[in-house]
Amino acid sequence: MGIYMDATYIINWLLFRILFMVYFLAALGYLSFLSTKKELLAQFATALTVLSFTLHTVVILFKMMIVRVFPFSNSRETLFLFTWATLLVFLVADLRYRIPVLGSFVMPIAFILIIYAYSLPEGQSPLPSIQSYWIGLHAAVAILGYATFVVASCAAVMYLIQERQLKSKKPGAFYYRLPSLEVLDNLSYRALSIGFPLLTLAIIIGAIWAGSRGINPLSRDPTAIFAVLVWLIYAVLIYARVTVGWRGRKASYLTILGFSYILISFIMIHYFSERGLHFF
Amino acid sequence: MNIIVVGLNHKTTPVEIREKLAFLDKDLEKPLLQLHQMEGILENLIVSTCNRVEIYSVVRAPEEGIRTVKTFLAAYHQMEVARLEEYLYTYEGEAAISHIFKVTSSLDSMVVGEPQILGQMKMAYRMACEGKTTGSLLHALMHKAFKVAKTIRTETGISRSAVSVSFAAVELAKKIFGSLQGKHVMILGAGEMGELAVRHLISEGVQGVLVANRTYERAVELAKAFQGKAVAFDHLLESLVNVDIVISSTGSPHYLLRYEDIKALLSLRKNRPMFLIDIAVPRNLDPGINQLDNVYLYDIDDLRAVVEANIKERSKEARQAEEIIHQEVLQFSKWLKTQDAVPTIKALRKKIETISRAELEKRLPELRNLSEKDLEKVQMMVNLITNKILHDPLVALKKLSYTDEGSLYIQAARKLFNLEDKD
Predict the structure, then answer these.
(1) Could you tell me the sign of the dihedral formed by the alpha carbons of A33, A36, A39, A43, in that order?
(2) For labelling alongside B96, which of A52, B14, B88, B385 has CA 20 to 30 A away?
(3) Would you say the ipTM is above 0.90?
(4) Is the CB of A62 inside 8 Å of chain B's CB atoms?
(5) Which residues of B are catalytic?
């Protein structure tokens, strides 16, 4: 048993190092592409991203089946899974929209996320009452929803930069590297319109689960509170877009605000939620 | 065999001199032949455009060849060589190859990335071919130059961005709207630049064209040309609801559209973006309009600034192009060396000498009983033998190198005598 544990420990250790390396190289590749405009670099970076995703999937499966660590069991695992979901959404967006520059924004964020995830402490098992099929579904849907908001926000940032370039009437480096406002706006809105129903579903499942156990889902639980706030922000965005076609600079700022709430809530999970449901 | 370039261009020579030294397209045969018959000139090609006059020649000796070409130019255009030399530049060898590649790829043009020069070079090459003044070297060189130009066009961005005001307007529209398919444009007034922009927009997929003019009849006329609709000037604002791009070039001294007008439009348009181009001086459109969210207003100065920025961007891409050319020049030079008899002859001679010297030294201890004089005689004999053996092949190589199959013989010699290419 001892040798078996050592072997898995070593494989784990190795896989992680390799995974970080590939993430880093992919992010570096995209940033170099942003700087030099050499398309070969973008293709190289995309290949590395696909490799990162594959490796990451292997690691998650390995941990689930062999080391028996539940992907949502603590904040490190959750963040680790969140990074995986971000890559998934990014690769789908890349396939559909073909905007390599998006990678220069998403991959560095993904790399920072995975490094931060690794800096968090190793598995503390959650309360036994948390482990259930419904919680798994709730977490998976929420994470996927949040991941689409990462991509939506990156597109919003790119939109803001390009909008600035066009308004100032002085084309700078970004003017030549970023696609049209229309494409960026489409991408951002599309991502939102996929993420929002996912988040809605996650909140509903979570609320029902908590309600069935007689717990108030919002009591002293920053994650849940922030999730509702994020939901509200994006609800306003989508409603305004559908009714008066609200879009452009201010809408992009709001998209990014929503994302910042997501980031804050991740930080909060770890430090402030002892009494709430989302304690890891 | 050497390649030389003698010429002048818009950078070195004012147009008054350039026009005196130009050759007319239809009259290239005579000067081509005249130069071809001159001493030391093996192949030649003349390029004459409004921005440059250049002569590419394959010559026996570069310095002599350059002098010959200069003399020819001066004599043909009845000018003094000394006067010409002020404006002429010359290149030889690798520098000449590099220059020819650069010119063909439009890196030496007034506007880097311009598309006409390639056609002009192809025309010049064709004329030289018809006049039979080109040979295997110029054939290889020019074909390579055309290939390099194509590579640079596709792999770098030197011809990608707009360098004219009307193209810049279209490029900006694409940066705002993405695809221009199905978009609507309105032109206020008339004028060459505006109409050109509308034409470009239509070719990019713009479908609805509205024309407004103070004189309704003129609007109808112009609308017909674009297969669009005419709009009465007093119905301007209502018709703008579905218009995505506005081009204004009227002589009006007042603003035709104000901040408030466009603001009111935006909610009716459900905040879909608008692009307004004001090419009139004095301006037709209130500059305050640019402050509205989702609206982009460019006046003529702004468009010119975009063109300037694009030109700068092109020159950045040009650096990448120069890198490509550098590699190609090295490759071509390498290939050239295998075509040239002189290094092969040198290498062959050196190899035979090395062999004979080595054998002599080996036998030296055995010939110790011979006197100094006898030793000398032995050496002389060996040298005579090797020289006589080499004489015929070397003379033949030299002679044949000036023919079309010359390279075959040179390659054969290199292979037969196992001469490595140490370069």
Answers:
(1) negative
(2) B14
(3) no
(4) no
(5) 50
